[in-house]
Amino acid sequence: MENEYMQLMNDLINQLTTENGIACMLAVAFVDLCLLIIILKAYKEKRINDVRWLHEIRNYNIEYEENLIPLDAAEILIGRHFAADIKLHDASVSRYHAIITFFNGVISIKDLNSKSGIYVNGRKVKYEILRGNDEIKIGNEKLIVRRKRQV
Amino acid sequence: MSSRNTSISYFSVKSIILLCHICLLGVVFFNGKYENITSVLILSVIVIATDLGYFLLLNMISQKTYTLDYLMILLLNITVIYHSCFGGVNFATKHYIITIIAFLACQFSYKFAQNPYKLEALKKFYYLAMVLIILSIIFLTGSRGIWIDIKGLFTIQPSELLKPFFVLVCATSIYFQQEKITLFGFRFVPDNVILFLFAIIILGLQWWSRDLGSIPTFFTVAFCALISRIAYPKGKLPKNLLVTALILILILAFIAIMMAPAYVKDRLFVDIWGDMYGNGYQQTRALIAIAEGGLFGKGPGHGFLHNVAAYQTDIIFSTIAEEWGLVSVILVISIILIMLTTALINNPKCYYHSTLAAGVVAVFVVQMSLNIFGSCNLIPFTGVTIPFISEGGTSMLTSGILLGFLKATQTPVFKDKPLNRKVKK
């Protein structure tokens, strides 16, 4: 058993110490290194992209019960559904109530055929462009649009 | 150059990609099977020139992420080197041309898919395209073939071209899911019903044209689409639904195996070592080749497997493992896997793009695993290609298009053109 093991090790060492083995190992090492560096770059790109995204949406946040919810995607679903981005527990809110979208540099809210509708600054709307300090009323819940830099 | 707005330097990535390729060419030089040194020189010059040209090209394009581009050049030039070395060093012109076509397809579909809302709006045309392709399969390939021959110049596999459109149809958005219509007292989402019909038609068509290898790919993409609709909108899944779906799939798979045609059953239950020169020929050779290759391979061109049928497509995993070793083939596979995981690092910003990315990942992973497990005799041969590694024009083209979609999900544009012009003034 031990002899077989030694034989295997010897074979491996013989394979590795030829010119071909060294070139192979170098190639493998470089591909590994390359993958590692590319992954690191991807994380760096992500950090820069996140900052750029905040700049693009001009640091808008949604304030709900004194918590700031960042707009980290171009589509934010508001509703009673357990997987909604902004979850409102009130029974007056539909499961898929409204959606906040970011397009053409503008943040807007759109009604998704909800039962109780949405009110922006006291006015019932189907679609409305949002600005800083706008007050959105959904059912009995209140959301406020804030322009604040996240710390 | 001023349009490049990332402040990251990619010099280290570029130089290491070049070093990778030079090392692989070094392996060819030291241990390759060639009669004339010029063939190695030609290969080296073309590979390095492609690298440098591509880097120059990337400098001129402004993108938010470059990860996929660099991974793609790394992978594709490695495959050019591999394909040039099967059975002796000889530059693989055909594979090189297909590679360039894949690059172009990737860039084109990336530009096309960048704006998710525009992409959504065109969904009717994807249905139309799918109908056209399905009709071409029915009338042009016949019931027992999967190829269309165009005047003997080249052949097209229409079922491959179906994949990008199917992925586009499988992707959905919150708007599509909220659009409900009532017909005959039933209230349903038209998007889901059309997808379901298409999935049934395609699976039936694959069964009819005996293209059984593609069934798992389409089935998985459809299953991914189903999950993304159940888990809508944000990937949280009710567990009992998932369990029910999995049990249903198992039952379906069992029925499919029971009803499979005779030649499929032969492949499923064949004793390959007892039938080494008959049904088990390819598979036994593939297994022996992997074992003979060892860790670092016999050397480029010294393999035996290039004498076996389908060495560049169905058993490419074994062919590379024999000539270059198990380590390098696993590395190449991991390059593709890392390509797919970049979607997790730089996650998509909207629902249509994220479901699109899920579909692309499903296609790639299923095709790769079918091919690799087939080569390792864990499952029977399916004749499915590994994206980007196997030879084959249509497969390469669709892989390029799908990768372009993945790239687009990471660099989305939420702008229409008119506003862009105003900003520039």
Fold and architecture overview:
The complex is a heterodimer of chains A (151) and B (425). The radius of gyration of chain A is 28 Å and the shape is elongated. Chain A is built from 2 helices and 11 strands. By secondary structure, chain B is mainly α. In chain B, 67% of the residues lie in helices and 3% in strands. In chain B, the strands form 2 sheets. Chain B has a two-stranded antiparallel sheet. In chain B, strands 3-4 form a two-stranded antiparallel ribbon. The longest helix of chain B is centred in the C-terminal third of the chain and has 25 residues. Chains A and B meet through helix 1, helix 2 and strand 5 of A and helix 1, helix 3, helix 8 and helix 15 of B.
Question: Secondary-structure blueprint of this entry?
Answer:
The complex is a heterodimer of chains A (151) and B (425).
Chain A: H1 2-16, H2 19-56, E1 60-64, E2 67-70, E3 75-79, E4 86-87, E5 98-103, E6 106-111, E7 118-120, E8 123-125, E9 127-129, E10 135-138, E11 141-147
Chain B: H1 11-31, H2 37-60, H3 67-85, H4 93-113, H5 116-121, H6 123-141, E1 148-150, E2 154-156, H7 158-170, H8 174-178, E3 181-183, E4 186-188, H9 190-208, H10 215-230, H11 239-259, H12 262-269, H13 281-293, H14 316-324, H15 326-345, H16 351-375, H17 393-410, H18 417-424
Antiparallel strand pairs in B: 1-2, 3-4
